[in-house]
Design brief:
With about 120 residues, this protein is mainly alpha-helical. It has two domains: about 55 residues, Multidrug-efflux Transporter Regulator, Chain: A, Domain 2, CATH 1.10.1660; about 50 residues. Helices cover about 75% and strands about 5% of the residues. The radius of gyration is 23 Å and the shape is elongated. The termini are far apart.
Length: about 120
């Protein structure tokens, strides 16, 4: 399948597919005329990459995780679970920090609102 076909099937841009190749997340073969050619299984790989990106994982982490995901489960199951747990915990810490920041902003907003609402002596 050509790059445009894979992009359309996966719902991503051709530019994204080229980026995935640059990041060593996806590989293609080349036709005699130099066009990128992909295997049918690459559609599922691109969808998985999209899911992991949507979960907030950076390219570097995806490169680390892909061999674990693609290898037989018994070989990398522990490593994969540990890495995914680390990423989940990292995201959880970010959520906690963002919640604290939001709460502080709410306090400032409420303080400004109450100041503006108070009558002037």
């Amino acid at each position: 399948m050509r790059i445009g076909e894979l992009a359309a099937e996966a719902g991503v841009s051709v530019r994204s597919l080229r980026y995935y190749e640059e990041q060593a997340l996806l590989t293609s073969e080349r036709s005699e005329s130099g066009q990128r050619l992909y295997q049918p299984a690459d559609l599922q790989r691109v969808r998985l990459i999209q899911q992991l990106y949507a979960a907030g994982l950076p390219s570097k982490t995806l490169r680390e995780l892909m061999p674990c995901i693609e290898a037989p489960v018994q070989r990398y199951a522990t490593q994969l679970l540990e890495r995914l747990t680390e990423e989940r915990d990292r995201i959880g810490a970010q959520i906690t920090q963002l919640s604290h920041t939001r709460d502080r902003l709410d306090a400032v907003i409420n303080s400004v609102d109450s100041t503006e609402a108070a009558p002037t002596p």
